[in-house]
Amino acid sequence: MKRNIAAEKAALAKNGGGFYKTLGGGVWMTPAVDIKTNTVFFVVGNPSPDLYGAERPGDNLYTDSIVAVDLNTGNYKWHYQYVAHDVWDLDAVSPPILVDVKDKNGKMIPGVIHGGKTGHIYVHNRSSGNLIRFSDPMVSQEGLWTLPTKEGARMSLGADGGVEWSPMAVNPGLRLAFAVNLEQPMTYHVEAAAYPGGKLWLGGSFKNSVGEEQFGNVTAVNIDTGKVVWKARTDQPMIGGALSTAGNLVFAGEGNGWFKAYDAKTGKVLWQYQCGAGVNAPATSYTVNGKQYIAVAAGGNTQLDFKRGNSVFVFAL
Amino acid sequence: MTCQVVLATIVALAAFSLSAQAQDVEAGKKRAEACVACHGPNGNSQAGTFPVLAGQSDRYLYLQLRDYKEGRRKNSLMSPIAAGLEKQDMKDLAAYFSKQNQERTGFKSDMARVEAGARKAEESLCAMCHLGGMKGQNEVPRLAGQNPDYVVTQLKSFKARERTNDAGNMTSLAQTLSEEDMVNLAHWISNLH
């Protein structure tokens, strides 16, 4: 990371540590709970202000981190910080998933995985938090960690990240995790700004990089190797989430209204349905009298301005 | 037993919040009589330099009044007015104006400028904070249907860093906008409803 540690230390000495009161670090999405070990795993959002880091020297723990705490007491167990002193809003938002994974010696152990806005899937040892591996990048990372400037500095990784809040899904038999991605090159602009008194505090702005194409992917990653096994391109950046079934199907919806089923082994599109509004929610599956159904909400998305809707669609397998 | 207690509490809370809300709007209406001269009847401003307040997010309205009072935002007309308002007055006014129906301003947008403004808005990711259709959310204002003169004035003011109560978001973005861009954005915003 391109940090000026001396300047951060000087800022801390000059202004003190009171900034922790406005440091942010909200938890956006649902945690995972391991009943066997009474542990809650959750991921933490970015430090505030998003782009202007001079106000908040140091690593800004526990922002941009996965954190494990005791279910009964809330006591800290471990954490792993993905981005220290974030100035890009590349926080940790996609819900953690508990799944057995191969450790570095090839032994199957309880793991916890997270799809990062950085574009990697992170695989941790569930009891220690140690990072076993992180996947190949699922999205372009040109110019990664370029510091924001007043005029705007480009990174091919946009502020919505490689994986936004969209939940991933896992097919344990195939050893695959499925993530939905955004390819949104942006410019990052910084502006010195004091705490605004309970208002949105970005300390800068993001812009789309002019003339550059935006699109999305559904990506399958082997959690035991970190390799990208397949990638299916979509016309628009993806926000919503993936669903994986035991019958080796993967479901994911798109902002243009298409809800698609993919072959979990190859990424081939097997089926699609036009829902008439953005399918920007993860699907779910359930059975009634032994028959399996897939349900998904098509509500659209205001952040990426995908067509809004107000319907839930249910399909029988 | 527990269920009954909880239910009773919920009913009591609901009744309380309804009456509190009604008082807010009613008290705000009375206080808003002084605002008509500039902001028009019900906050539907007829003069382009004064913002339409009708239908605006109540949290945005409250925080802007508070910012005027505390000196985070400065305006020769609004600062002295806000100086005399208490927190409850600001909340009442915000509640009142947010509940009013926004009417069209009567401004006729130039469609070529609307198109150019839409392109610039997409590039500038306006929807990321102001949401699709510029409907606004919480402290991020509704822009749809706003007076174009007011929009341009504010963008210029952000660019010149004269208005700085935006926490760096708009001051930063406005640096990338030319005056032409600002006019185009204003035509596009005014045309939304």
How would you describe this structure to a colleague?
The complex is a heterodimer of chains A (317) and B (193). Chain A has one helix spanning 5-15; strands at 32-34, 39-43, 65-70, 76-81, 97-102, 108-115, 121-125, 131-134, 153-155, 169-171, 176-183, 186-190, 204-208, 215-222, 228-234, 242-244, 249-253, 258-263, 269-274, 284-288, 291-298, 311-316. By secondary structure, chain A is mainly beta. In chain A, strands 1-2-3-4 form a four-stranded antiparallel sheet, with no helix packed on it. In chain A, strands 5-6-7-8 form a four-stranded antiparallel sheet, with no helix packed on it. In chain A, a hairpin with a 4-residue loop joins strand 1 (32-34) and strand 2 (39-43). Chain B has ten helices and no strands. Chain B has helices at 2-31, 36-39, 58-70, 78-83, 87-98, 111-123, 126-130, 148-159, 169-174, 179-191. Mean pLDDT of chain B is 89; it is low at 1-20. The chains are: A mainly beta (317), B mainly alpha (193). The interface between A and B is medium-sized, with 33 and 32 residues.
